[in-house]
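Q: For a teaching handout, I want to show students what a protein-ligand complex looks like in token form. Below are the inputs, and the small molecule is DLL. Please produce the holo structure.
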Amino acid sequence: MIWNEEAECMSREDIKEIQLKKLQNAVKKAYENVPYYNKKYTKLGVFPEDIGTLEDIAKLPFTTKDDLRESYPFGMFAVPPKKIVEVHSSSGTTGKPVVSGYTRKDLDNWSELMARGLNMMGVGEDDIIQNTHGYGLFTGGFGIHYGAQKVGSIVVPISTGQTRRQIEIMKDFGTTAMIFTPSYGLYLAEVAKEEGIDPKSIGLKAIGFGAEMWTEEMRKKIQDQFRAPAFNIYGLTELMGPGVAVECSSQNGLHISEDYFLPEIIDPNNGNKLDEGQKGELILTNLEREGMPIIRFRTKDITALHYEKCDCGRCFVKMDRITGRTDDMIKVKGVAIFPSQIEKTLLKIDNVEPHYQIIVSRPHLLDEIEVKVEASPDIFFDEVKEMVNIKKKIEDYIENEIGLRVKVSLIEPKSIPRSEGKAVRVIDKRDLH
Ligand code: DLL
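A: Here is the structure, written as tokens, with DLL included.
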């Protein structure tokens, strides 16, 4: 059974007709109610009336994470604050986070979209969904939660961490569907085995995983460990959260709900549109958002679109799994991190230089970050106590900025290789591509 057959199995003509109507409306609302769009469109001399066809979207400028950051916290909202009922937030590139605001209707739409996603994974009212995503400003917890309730399953809002308790609950409650980041899934399986529980014996029906990049080898490992199919869930805070696109039983791409989102693929170097099947940067327009209209958002995620009909019967376009980003954002334990956040923190601390390198690895299935920081020439490496104090201070400051505890190593001045072009700030040893 398809959750919303009328929507998900529409003809291409109907999809286009609905998209055009909604796009015209979204652009008009953004122009009329959000000073950011109003100023930008006026300056460029493009107006809502100029959108006569779907292709006309190319006349509109892109919106970036930095644009949203500059409107921090509520500057992108298109409705008065009293109509906003929930906010979520994610990291910004240079400090300020991005805030996403939802009206009651936006939350209803989010539930619908995530319900479609869970239905694609074969999850419904007979299921018990254990949601290991964090409940808080991160969209993962609440987004999955809303969808799970909408399809009528029992949702276990256990949130992140407490790995041994997670396993106990899976067993005791008879969890049938797990939601996790791929790295956490593998870790869960390992801890279960340590506890003498074979993850296969839990009897999972489906796994939903996302929020960070993964490889087919990782999927295979997760599926083998739990003996259950694993489906990719994609989304981002700016557009909504999880549920923008989800994988169906074919497991070869994610359906984007095109009655809510208009996807484009561009060449990230010149902004030109790329054709079906060509890899480039994904641009997304939210066609329905009341609280915060998002027009032509540069996701920086690399993928390609495919329009041929899918075996599952759904007609919405499919995107490939994300294979990279055009910027230096990394996701660690599901948390988005920019090197600039580390840099900003280092600049606040005496005795260290803003020369650093971030090393991300996955030594025991869980992500670990080590930040190597150059000490200033005037501190003495034989002053053990002083070194320990500085190291701890940096760790505390970084934790305060990114929300994760990292390991800091202080190294000799000038020991990080200098580069003439872009400095290599991140060394990702996880092999995610
Ligand atoms: O990660 C939303 C989410 C929550 C998706 C739970 C899936 C499950 P942000 O924290 O704003 O939102 O991060 C968005 O994460 O631009 C991608 O780079 C990356 N990302 C999200 N899902 C996937 C995925 C949530 N399935 C950013 N595969 C996006 C690869 C993903 N990367």
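A: Two things your students might notice: The two ends are 34 Å apart (CA to CA). Residues 330-432 form a domain with the GMP Synthetase; Chain A, domain 3 fold (CATH 3.30.300.30).
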